[in-house]
Design a protein that fits this description.
This protein has about 290 residues and is of the alpha/beta class. About 40% of the residues lie in helices and about 15% in strands. It folds into two domains: about 5-110 and about 245-275, Response regulator (Rossmann fold, 3-Layer(aba) Sandwich), CATH 3.40.50.2300; about 115-240, Response regulator (Rossmann fold). It contains nine helices and twelve strands. The strands form two sheets. It has a six-stranded parallel beta sheet with strand order 2-1-3-4-5-11, sandwiched between helices. A six-stranded mixed beta sheet has the order 7-6-8-9-10-12, sandwiched between helices. Helix 2 packs parallel to helix 9. The radius of gyration is 21 Å and the shape is elongated.
């Protein structure tokens, strides 16, 4: 265990890193947090996790640890700054992970979400699907916008069908996936495939399709995003975009540690590789 008080006597650092995330129950974050914790131990650091939701007041309470020099830095997974935007993020040891924060000059660790979404939809297009719907995440979320942009880019590049209900609003949840899929399956000309903004939505889409008597992927193909464990064991196993979440966590902590050790030198952004994990939830569309 790290003795923070003893460390403080030896140096000007506390050895404490604060990690802020929007929903500790979201399975996306578990492996990422493991990577952060593993790398923290190699730097003789401790990790304090803050579950902020979208409440800026909670985030500001954690920020005061850094401002009061009781923490060395903050890793942000929640998509917003924990302090008033008049302050410059570049003046503090802050690393942004997975979800970019607009206008913030802080090191970023993540993947190219636009390119990954483009590749996921392109996979469905190569299978022969032309009527592909998209279920998005929360309206104001950066990941929602980036993955929707990748979807639209693929629709244009492959000359896929466009119709008013093709993009369905949603949240990053199974419930939202079921609701949006219900709306899509109620259309006179329903899609043959759905690309979702995360895996929980995709699992909800599969559940709703089955509830309505459809077979996945024979009657409806589904592709997700993130590659969480639930997607690997659902029936059928989910084709999805794999994100290197453990490596993302490790790189985030390593980036923060370098900044703490050399405060005047802002670390560079890190863009990690993704890949399409092809499993059993997508196949060529059935003849109609």
């Amino acid at each position: 265990a790290v003795n923070i008080n003893a460390r403080g006597l030896r140096s000007k650092t506390s050895g404490l890193v604060v990690v802020l995330l929007p929903d500790i129950a979201n399975p996306f974050f578990s492996v990422l947090l493991q990577g952060i914790e593993e790398q923290a131990r190699s730097h003789d650091m401790s990790v304090l996790i803050g579950d902020t939701g979208v409440d800026r007041a909670i985030a500001e309470n954690y920020w005061r640890l850094l401002e009061g020099q009781r923490a060395d830095g903050i890793i942000l997974l929640n998509g917003f700054l924990p302090f008033h935007p008049a302050r410059r993020a570049a003046d503090y040891p802050i690393v942004v992970v997975s979800e970019r924060i607009g206008g913030v000059d802080a090191p970023f660790v993540g993947i190219d979400n636009v390119a990954a979404a483009f590749d996921a939809v392109s996979h469905l297009a190569r299978l022969g699907h032309t009527r592909i719907a998209h279920i998005s995440g929360p309206a104001e979320n950066v990941l929602t916008a980036e993955r929707r942009a990748g979807y639209r880019k693929a629709v244009e590049a492959h000359g896929l069908d466009e119709w008013p209900e093709a993009i369905q609003p949603g949240e990053f949840s199974i419930r939202a996936g079921r609701a949006a899929t219900g709306r899509l399956l109620g259309l006179r000309a329903r899609p043959t495939a759905i690309f979702t903004a995360n895996d929980e939505i995709a699992i909800g889409a599969i559940m709703e399709a089955k509830a309505q008597g459809l077979r996945v992927p024979h009657d409806l193909s589904v592709v997700g995003f993130d590659d969480i464990e639930m997607g690997q064991i659902c029936d059928p196993a989910l084709t999805t975009v794999y994100q290197p979440r453990r490596e993302m966590g490790r790189k985030a902590l390593e980036t923060l540690a370098r900044w703490v050790e050399a405060p005047g030198r802002r670390p560079a952004d890190i863009l990690l590789d993704y890949k399409l994990a092809v499993r059993d939830s997508a196949m060529p569309p059935a003849a109609r």
